[in-house]
Amino acid sequence: MNALSDRADLIELTGRYADIADLKEFTELPGLVMADPVTIDFESVADIPPMTVPLGDYVEALRGSFASFSATHHTITGHVIDIDGDRATIHAHVRAEHWVPDELADGGPDRWLVVGFYDNEAVRTADGWRLSHVRLTASHQENPHLAGAALAAGQDG
Questions:
Q1: Which of 79, 108, 148, 150 is deepest in the core (most CB within 10 A)?
Q2: What is the DSSP string of 38-84?
């Protein structure tokens, strides 16, 4: 346990968080990345208040939210990390791209883009660092209507 290895672990944790959605790996990876329960705050993109939920509920919400996207790609960079014992904060830049199938694009744009920042908190557990609080603040979006179309299609399917 030293600051450099903790920092490397926290950056990797953030990368694995992106992999959950981008690889659509909702089985093993969430337990390696997230605390249970976890606090989520996507109010700036989803217009729902922050909430603390059991990890299983969050995973099912993720699975449903990403089911109809043909591909996603989350680039998370510029990590600024503060470690205080067994707690850490991680501020990072994010560019999240979400593509919908042609039938959902309906002849229009096929990509929902979110650019902004993650301000996350992590806790050290017996099994390593886990994200306990995830907050996304969007500073720019393109085609946010595609998020709703993808979510509706996922709920219908």
A1: 150
A2: EEEE-HHHH----EEE-HHHHHHHHHHHHTT-SEEEEEEEEEEEEEE
Residues forming a β-bridge with 59:
none
Mean per-residue pLDDT for 45-68?
94
Give the whole-number percent of the chain exceeding pLDDT 90.
Answer: 89
Amino acid type, 111: R
- Determine the pLDDT at residue 152: 83
Residue count of the chain, please give it: 157
The amino acid that residue 151 corresponds to is L
Q: Enumerate residues 6+ apart whose C-beta is below 8 A from 68.
A: 100, 101, 104, 149, 150, 151, 153, 154, 157
What would you report as the CA-atom Rg of the chain, rounded to the nearest whole angstrom? 16
